[in-house]
């Protein structure tokens, strides 16, 4: 296993701290996860590379995991209203319109395997059971923190609705509950990070 180049790692940490502040300034950053990201940056051997606090999207794609031919039609990091989905469903689909709910995901770079294990322990304590180490290189050890929260439902194929309008509010309720379940895991992560020692 290649060792982490500390100098390179620290330089990257500073660059990504600046990018985080820039993203915050331009409104690109997910505000409800900001304090968690800053907690990671305060750790001596960790920083975040990318993050999402959980979201509800409608994507036009042959299948929800196919990125090459997909287009995001709608995206929100908070609960959605029935009217918002009704507006989306007035559009015809090139392929299939999928309602996709995903839980929080955070990628953390650590300077040591010991810190990677600590971060994993904190994540699992918070209920992020699908977390693991993604890669090891001179740039750092990348740990993915992830919940099992995920829903994908086909809504419309071409101009053919696959969900009846009277069932749409039930679907929205389920999607919102799943999103909020992911947000609860973020709250637990926040608490676990606050309790942990660097």
What's this model, at a glance?
This protein is an alpha+beta fold and 198 residues long. It has helices at residues 6-26, 34-42, 82-89, 113-125, 168-195, and strands at residues 46-52, 55-61, 71-76, 96-102, 105-110, 132-137, 140-146, 150-157, 160-161.
Order of SSEs: HHEEEHEEHEEEEH
Rounded to the nearest angstrom, the radius of gyration is 19 Å
- List unreliable stretches of 5+ residues: none
Please, what is the average pLDDT? Answer: 93
**How would you sum up the global shape?**
elongated
Distance between the termini: 24 Å
CATH topology: SSo0622-like fold
- CATH homologous superfamily annotation: tRNA wybutosine-synthesizing-like
Number of domains: 1
Total helical segments:
5
Trace the largest sheet across and list its strands: 3-2-4-8-9
- Main sheet specs: 5 strands, antiparallel
List keywords for this structure.
single chain, 198 residues, 5-stranded antiparallel β-sheet, 5 helices, 9 strands
